[in-house]
Amino acid sequence: AVIMAEVCGTTRGAGNNRAYEDAVNTRIDGELQEVESDLPEDIRDRALSVFRSAVSQKFTVQQAIEKVQKEALVEVEERFKGQRFKGFIKFDYDTSVITINVN
């Protein structure tokens, strides 16, 4: 599975790499407002709990995304082996929106 992550900060510049690098190296502040996902419910729930624990441990966005990939999204590959699977999970915080795509 190819994992793409998008990070949108409220103060982002015009999509340059520098802005992305800054975004993934920041920590997430604020409350989780909403989670959107079309992943199977158990994988979604696992991804959410892994992400929240990473945030509470003050991981950077990059580290949090990697943790979700290793501990939750790896399950997508197991379950849909050899099938084309596309899905996403989006975490909407006060100050940033993090979308992780699986395809």
Task: Describe the protein in words.
The protein is globular. The chain has 103 residues and is α+β, with helices and mostly antiparallel strands. Mean pLDDT is 85; it is low at 10-14. α2 packs antiparallel against α3 (61-79). Strands 1-4-3-2 form a four-stranded antiparallel β-sheet. Helix content is 42%, strand content 26%. The chain has three helices and four strands, in the order βαβααββ. The protein has helices at 17-24, 41-56, 61-79, and strands at 3-9, 32-37, 87-93, 96-102.
Residue share in helix: 40-55%
Number of strands: 4
The secondary structure category is alpha+beta
The end-to-end span amounts to 6 Å
Globular, elongated, flat, extended or rod-shaped: what is the shape? Answer: globular
Spatial arrangement of strands, main beta sheet: 1-4-3-2
**Average pLDDT for all residues:** 85
What is the CA-atom radius of gyration, in angstroms? 13 Å
Query: How much of the polypeptide forms β-strand, as a percent range?
Result: 25-35%
Given as residue ranges, the uncertain stretches (5+ residues, pLDDT < 50) are 10-14
The string of secondary-structure elements, in order, is EHEHHEE
Largest sheet data: 4 strands, antiparallel
